Amino acid sequence: LYVDDAQTLYDEFVCKGAIILAPPVDKAHGMREFTIGTPDGHRMVVGQDLERE
Predict the structure, then answer these.
(1) 3-state DSSP assignment of residue 40
(2) What is the C-alpha to C-alpha distance for residues 38 and 32, in angstroms, rounded to an integer?
(3) Is residue 41 part of a domain?
């Protein structure tokens, strides 16, 4: 899932009690990514293109 502001969305998910599997990390390929879990065991990676900042 691509978003404009990964950190803000991450902070919202934390405040709402989301299942956080990995905090935001700036990757070498130019993305800021974090991973959340769903109640049924799936993973969703949320990413922001740092080139667009």
Answers:
(1) coil
(2) 20
(3) yes
Give pLDDT tens digits along the chain (53 positions).
Answer: 999 999 999 999 999 999 999 999 999 999 999 999 999 999 999 999 999 86
Burial classification of residue 6, based on how many CB atoms lie within 10 Å of its CB (0-12 exposed, 13-18 middle, 19 or more buried): buried
In a domain, 1, yes or no: no
What pairing do the DSSP bridges indicate for beta strands 19-26 and 43-49?
unpaired
The answer to whether residues 19 and 39 touch, using CB atoms and an 8 Å cutoff, is yes
The first and second tokens of residue 10, run together, are 């991450």
pTM flag (> 0.85): yes
